[in-house]
Each structure stands twice: as C-alpha cells, then as structure tokens.
Amino acid sequence: MNSASALSFGRMSKIAARFVGTPSVGPLLVLLAFGLIFSLTNPRFLATQNLSIILQQTVIIGTLAIGQTLIILTAGIDLAVGAICVLGTILAGKLANSGYDPIAAMGLAVLACSAAGVAAGSLISGLRLPPFIVTLGILGIITAALRLISAGGAFPVTDEFLGWTGNTVRLNGFIVTYGVIIMLLLYGMVWFLLNQTQWGRHVYAVGNNPEAARLVGIPVGRLLLSVYVLAAFIYGIAAWLALGRIPNADPNALQTANLDSITAVVIGGTSLFGGRGGLIGTLIGALIVGVLRNGLTLAGIDPLWQDLVTGILVIVAVALDQLTRGRR
Amino acid sequence: MSTLPMSTGTKSGTVVRSTVAGLVFFGTAFAVTAHASAEEVIVGLVTKTEVNPFFVKMRQAAEEAAKAKGVKLIARAGKFDGDNEGQVTAIEDLISAGAKGILVTPNNSTGMLGVIKKARDAGVLVIALDTATEPADAVDATFATDNFEAGVEQGAYARKALGDKKPVLAMLDGTPGGTVDTFRHNGYLKGFGLAEGDPAIAGSAITNGAQDKGQVGMENLLSKNGEINAVYTINEPAAAGAYAALKSFGKEADVMLTSIDGGCAGVRDVKAGKIAATVMQFPYKMAAMGVDAVVDYATNGKKPSGFVNTGSFLITDKPVEGIDSKNTEWGLKNCWGD
C-alpha cells in the first residue's frame, strides 16, 4: 500500500505502459487506494473481523464471476448466471426439504445447473446463436421454471451439509467461512486451467479471433461448449455457497447477479471483446465493489454513492481497455 | 470501436492521473465527514428497497427522529423486492460500523435469521419494522401493522359493500412467499368469508405490488372470467393498475375494488372513486418508534419486546354499516408519500 501511495505522478505515467500491459495491476491500485481511504475515515474498517466480512460478502458474486470471466474471455456474455445459481439453491432446498439425502440433493442441483450450461453452450456453438440472446432466453426460461418449482414460496434450509459453507474456521486468527475458502480454491484451480494448460490458451485464442483459432485447428465449437458447461458447474457450486451464506432458497434472489458479476469482471480489467484479461483481476474487481459498499457504510455515507463510483470505475476500465487496444 | 481516437502513452497516463486525483479528492471528503461523527450513537435502518414511497417515508421519519434525538442514522436498502443478500450485507456492515440498534424491514421472514442473531450476539438491538421475522422472537421486537387484521378489514368491507351479489373474486397478490403478502391475502379471505380454493375465487395474479403488473394481471383475469365483481389488491399501485384494466373493459363501475397501504396517491384514488376503500398503515410511526427505542436502549439499556401494532384504519367515502372507517379528508391528512 505504501509503495503505491508514495509514487509520484511523473513515475505513474512512466509505468503506465506496464500498468496497462498487466490488466490486474490497475484494479489492484484502485482497491488499495480505497482501502487506504476507508481505513483513514474509520479505523474499524481494518479490523480483521470487518475484512473477513467483506470477503464473506464477496463469496456469491465472486464465485459467479469466475464463470462469467471464462465466458467473457471467449467474447461471450452470460445473463443467466444468477438464474442458474438460484435454480441450484431451489432444487437443493426443495429436494432436501422433501426428504432427499442432502448430499445427493446438492449433487443433483449442481448437475441441473451444468445441464443449463450444456443447453447454452450447444445453442451458441452448434447453431452459432449470439450468447447475449441465448442467455437472455435461458434467464427467462429458468426464472419461470423457478416460480413453478417453488410455487412462489422460499425454502428455508436447516440441513447441516447444505449450510456447511457458512460455518467459520479460524486461520491464523483470521476468521473465514468455508465458503470463502472454496471460492479461493476455485479461483486457484480455474487460474491454473487458464494459464497453465492448452485448454486455457485456446480460450484466449478463441476470444481474440475465433476464425484464426479455427484455422490453426482449435476445435472452437467444442471449446465454447466446455466453457459454458464449466461456468454453469461453477454456478452450481456458487449455489451451495449461497445456501451457506443465506440458508434460505428464495426464487426472488440474485436478480442483479448478472450485471454485478459482469461489473466485477470489467472492473477487473477483462475486455468485453474477449481474449484479454484474467481471473485475478476479477477477484480484485469483486472485492472493489464489496470494499466500496462496506467502507461507505462505515463512513456513514449514503451507499447510493457506491453505485455512482462503481459506474465511473466501469467506464474507466472499459476506456482503458479501448485505449490500450488502439495501441496494438 | 475503431472510430474512437487512438491513444498514446501520455493519454493513458492522464487517465491514471485523473483517477488517482479523484480518489484523493473522495478520500478527503470522506475523512472530513467521518471525523465529525466520532462518538455518536448510530442507528441503522435497512429497508426492502429505495424506490417504494412507503420505505422512503419510513426513512424520512427515521431521519427526522434521529435528528431530533441527536443520533446518527445510517440507512441502507435491498436493491429489489426479495434481495436477501443485499439486506444481510447491509446488516453486517452496520454491525461493523458499530450501530447500537438496527431497524430492519426483512425482504423474507426467514432469509436473514443468521445475521440478525449475529447482530444481537454483538449486543445490537434489532427491531423488525413493517414485516415480522419467522419466528417472530428472532428479533427483540416488531413494530408493524397487523397485516392480517388489515386484510380482514379490507375483505369485510368488500363483502359488505357487495351486498346481495354473488361474489366472483379476483386476487392481485404481491410477491409470492412474502410474509406481508400472505397475511393480507389470508386476512382478506377471512374478512370476506371465503376459504382458500373456494370456487368463488376466479383466479389470482402476481403483481410484485407494481402498477404495470397489476394492470396486466387484471386484464388476464378479466379475459379468463368476465363475471368478476370483487378485486383484492396487495397495495394501491396494484389497485391503480387494476382500475385501468377494469376501465378498458368498461367494468369499473360494477367491481368492488379495494386495497391496503394508505399512500397519498391511493387515498386520492379513493377520493376520486377509483378504489372503493383502502386500509391505511403508518410507516412513520414504525420508524419514529424504532429510533426512539434504540435511543432508549443506548441511554438506559432498556429493550422493547414483542409485537407492537402500529395500527391501521379503513379509509372510504362510502362507509358501510357495522364497519369503522374514516373519510378521505382525514386520509389525506394522514397519508404518506406524495
């Protein structure tokens, strides 16, 4: 934090080139700057308990944003992310409440989420329909299905396993939930896939230029399908994490998760045009949104300012992406 | 995208520079604000949404009460009806901010039990406003309209005003699963003297308490059954939508349209004869009493408990015998919103 704040403006513009070359550095500076500001306004901000709470608050959107990042890297977009996750919570909650083994119920729920990914991926890769339209359609279908499945009601979840991800554990005096640990593990695993495997290189290649990727022999259709299925599988895991955070499967939940996850991805420096960006930026992007909301409340300022600042950050992030694209 | 001017290194440097300058500016502004409010008693208010005039009134009343008592109010809200996550997050932040008491209108009666327990364990007084939790003793106290009773008032009036006509009822519900929705719906049926599933109920529609959806719902129900002569509505915006649909079918004079809330727009609709009667509730009472209770707790350590009915009253210009009501003149003096 000190090194970031001690930089002079002159040196700032000199390293601007490297800054934009590594997409997650800019978001990191913004995150640290907000952290500094909020810790000055209210010393409670830096209390370990408060920092732990911010992490817990990031769990659902942060996890959904992993899948959203994968899809956006392929120059796609997923508007059904929240609906698929709620499908998972409702199925798990309903099945467990009607006597199913909770582990089987959660497993089935994750499978159902993955199936939604198969549907989206097949339509996008097979029929070459635009992801925006396909996922908008799936959003509508699942929202209606949820009303039918739940008959309008919510399912309070009391089961130990389904709520387990909300339990806390102490790591070096820092209290976190299992949900936070699972989210970070998922980030680690998908980061590895993206950066250390051929599959990951193909994701970037397809996002950059699908035609060129096809010409060098990358199976573009199969790759897109795998991306949508993996993303939806992660939304299923996010459903489990959501039940841990709020032990109540509610068909009305997560209505803004699609835009919230896209916001995290964009603030994190991933390009909406595909092929550029990465997961670490997304995690930082999700944390920026959480830090803003929490810090403003601690400072006693109307959190409506959060939406305003988030909006500015989204535009700045996209502008930076656009500017650096022009240079290449 | 190719039409945008291409940049140079200096240009993105400028962007970085102005971003940092902006952050520094924000920081200074925050630091000043926060400094002024060091040792105050903090009261948190978490409403369902920022857009409903009911909650706007609640927030205004809480702000006035907080000002009068010299305490600091921090208000937060969910983003949409049913946003549990947003409300849980808000309560967590308020605990971190050191709130002495938190007033909450839960979006879902069971959705936030965990975080409410966390708050109470941390010594924070938690009072539910408007909507009870399930179980009700999850919070220290509940200051609310008895929504079942309000539903009974609406239903009883509608049945009586309908006279000898054989009832054919349409129900415009709010958000399925909401506590308030269930209480009002069931209360109406009790007051009307019908059981759930009675063939006299022609159908129901989900409105989310919004005018546009109330209109669509009413249109569909009228298409389904043209004999409808009584309409239950969850709130006045839904009733306004229903009225527009009834009018387009030329049935506005033959249908007993009633509602609940007591918003000023709704009372004006009663005065104009669009809605026959509405049951008024008092959000400013809930909020003001809530702030007072937190201040009392902060100074004397006294906690309120149980359900405190903040009351409701039937507003109509066509009173029926045997049912207490006030006219719209009184209603317009006591309504909320614009």
Would you kindly provide a brief summary of this structure?
Chain A is built from 15 helices and four strands. With 328 residues, chain A is mostly helical. In chain A, the strands form two sheets. Chain A has a two-stranded antiparallel sheet. In chain A, strands 2-3 form a two-stranded antiparallel sheet.
Describe the 3D structure.
The complex is a heterodimer of chains A (328) and B (338). By secondary structure, chain A is mainly alpha-helical. Chain A has a domain at 55-254. Chain A has 15 helices and four strands. Chain A has helices spanning 2-6, 9-14, 16-21, 25-41, 48-73, 81-97, 102-126, 131-150, 178-196, 198-208, 210-215, 220-245, 257-267, 279-298, 304-327, and strands at residues 155-156, 168-171, 174-177, 248-249. In chain A, helix 7 packs antiparallel against helix 8 (131-150), helix 7 packs antiparallel against helix 12 (220-245) and helix 14 packs antiparallel against helix 15. The relative contact order of chain A is 0.19. Chain B is an alpha/beta fold. Chain B folds into two domains: 42-145 and 283-304, Response regulator (Rossmann fold, 3-Layer(aba) Sandwich); 147-280 and 314-334, Rossmann fold. Chain B contains eleven helices and twelve strands. Chain B has a six-stranded parallel β-sheet with strand order 2-1-3-4-5-11, sandwiched between helices. A six-stranded mixed β-sheet of chain B has the order 7-6-8-9-10-12, with helices on both faces. In chain B, helix 3 runs parallel beside helix 4 (113-121) and helix 9 (264-271) runs antiparallel to helix 11. Mean pLDDT of chain B is 87; it is low at 1-16 and 27-38. At the A-B interface, helix 2, helix 3, helix 4, helix 5 and helix 14 of A face helix 1, strand 2 and helix 3 of B.
